[in-house]
Design brief:
By secondary structure, this protein is mostly helical. The chain contains 6 helices and no strands. It has helices at about 1-30, 30-60, 65-70, 75-100, 105-120, 125-140. The relative contact order is 0.04. It comes from Escherichia coli.
């Protein structure tokens, strides 16, 4: 099954090369509508690469067969896959930390991590809180504020009567 999927991947990517060359030509000629159509068409080919095998499997394999195959997997294998899934999360966090590399933003990262563990908010709620915190940070941080010119004060020394 994996070999068939790999062949479909190579086939789909070979077909999308034609779309990419046509998109390059459309971009050079500033035909943006054609460029949009070619972009969506190439994505459609990639979607079919996944949809066709899924449709074939769903037509020939019943839900009972899938349930029986999953229950035939030994407990130690499923437990190992669960542990590996936990490692993937840890590796993902490590990659984010490595890519961030901006030390002054680390408190926000750890605050979000702790809040995620204890507040039981949805991903959408976290996104909203993150956007609000980013906007507040930009507004309050002097680095991001525009320097407003101070009005010039007139010097009184030219008008001072005691200088005579």
């Amino acid at each position: 099954m994996a070999a068939a999927g790999q062949v479909l991947t190579v086939f789909a990517r070979t077909i999308t090369v034609v779309f990419q060359h046509a998109a390059d030509k459309a971009a050079e000629e500033a035909r943006f509508r054609t460029l949009d159509i070619l972009h969506v068409s190439a994505l459609g080919v990639q979607a079919l690469r996944v949809a066709i095998p899924a449709l074939i499997v769903s037509l020939f394999v019943s839900a009972d067969m899938v349930s029986n195959m999953l229950s035939a997997i030994p407990e130690f294998v499923t437990r190992g896959l669960q542990i590996a899934g936990g490692f993937i999360v840890v590796v993902g966090y490590a990659m984010v930390l490595r890519m961030m590399g901006v030390k002054y933003l680390m408190p926000f990262f750890f605050l979000g991590f702790l809040a995620g563990g204890y507040l039981d908010l949805s991903l959408l709620a976290f996104g909203g809180v993150g956007v609000i915190m980013a906007l507040l940070y930009i507004q309050l941080n002097p680095q991001w504020r525009k320097a407003e010119p101070h009005p010039q004060t007139t010097t009184i020394t030219a008008l001072d009567q005691l200088d005579d």
